[in-house]
Amino acid sequence: MKKPTILISNDDGIESEGIKALWRAIRKFAEVIVVAPNTQQSAVGHSITVSSPVRYRKNLIDKNYYGYAVEGSPADSVKLAVRNILKGKKIDLLLSGINHGANTAINIIYSGTVSAATEGTILGIPSIAVSLASFTYNDFSVAAGFASQIAKTVLKKGLPLGTLLNVNIPAKSREEINGVLITKQGKSVWDDHYEQRLDPNKREYFWLSGKMKILDNDPDYDQTAIGENYISVTPVHYDLTNYALLDELKSWDLKLKK
Amino acid sequence: MKKPTILISNDDGIESEGIKALWRAIRKFAEVIVVAPNTQQSAVGHSITVSSPVRYRKNLIDKNYYGYAVEGSPADSVKLAVRNILKGKKIDLLLSGINHGANTAINIIYSGTVSAATEGTILGIPSIAVSLASFTYNDFSVAAGFASQIAKTVLKKGLPLGTLLNVNIPAKSREEINGVLITKQGKSVWDDHYEQRLDPNKREYFWLSGKMKILDNDPDYDQTAIGENYISVTPVHYDLTNYALLDELKSWDLKLKK
Q: What is the pTM of this model?
């Protein structure tokens, strides 16, 4: 059987341990192409470069294997991969990650990891974002193993156009993980503030700081699921319409005043 | 009666004509504070600055009136306004715009204008994004008039937590506009490609170019509504869960393999 073709991207940059761990796991069963930002892209959201050019260069991933490093955002990397670097080649699946740090609840909005997968779905490719729920835990083996497993499942089952899977994996050993839950995006938001400081020239600057305000306690939600040592799988789409509000707004009877 | 307090931001930058037109219209009935990026921010998505500091300075909007120019994204501007510049002050409404160019269909994902309003809703403020559907039409009077009108309606009726209104106004005279429609986010996406060029040093670069592939023809959708000269009002939220897929995914019976 022909090997599937899998595009790998991320937002931590092409040099990150997470993307290398993913590449090592996925190349066992697929033809893999890595196209990712050349530098760490934190909280870039779904930004795309339109008012300046983008460039890319080949980048050594491991002995004899080259990926492509893009001077741009995660979404730029995926779009450039599909529209130019791999133009005309059928891509069976896109994987984004493995991100260092959870992408759950409100963080999905700011996430470059999810953004790369969103761009994949916009371009018609079944896409999965994979995050390891810790900034410090460096063992990607469970995450890479589950990424392989769910990649194979999606290659078999497919995903509806416009929907990606957002996968978060607890920073735990295989034995400590309680299982896999299908979840909803949590409601938790950031309780944040700006630290006000003075630079060496006595000029004021502000640095964002804060912690998540947990607003869910049901493992039906992504954030709580990983807190209870479950792998969380959330179907995410980019139809942002709040359908429940359409009728209410129609009843407002808005008219352009003369 | 006490005047409402309205925060105005945008993504075209604090010097843009659109934000000034909006400020002039809204100050007639509200106390207005303008906090916006110091430069044009195109297609920045919902990016937020976390790994470097942000700064702001006062910026003259018009005679004797100062706003605040933020060295950052639209979402940075709103967060810094709420968490620091206006800390402790009750903000009754956030308006983002008036953007030069429509923010409909897939563009909502990339839109800094919508992102500023999204950040407002995350921070618990009823928020409205306002765009004029042309990059060249310079008469903001109809758009500013309707922005005032819908601002007053939302001040009276409120919005559910987490939902903003995304308003798009045709680049037409008042007489040519057919009315106001409550719409859904359209399905149209970009048919784009990268133009490949050589810089003066003969180094390759790539520039994104393309046009929208129209996939809707029903004025129930934002893009088509403005094409038929209707003002489009879409309720947009940041719950990205595709609820329709939850049961299907549960039937996949995913398990972490030993």
A: 0.95
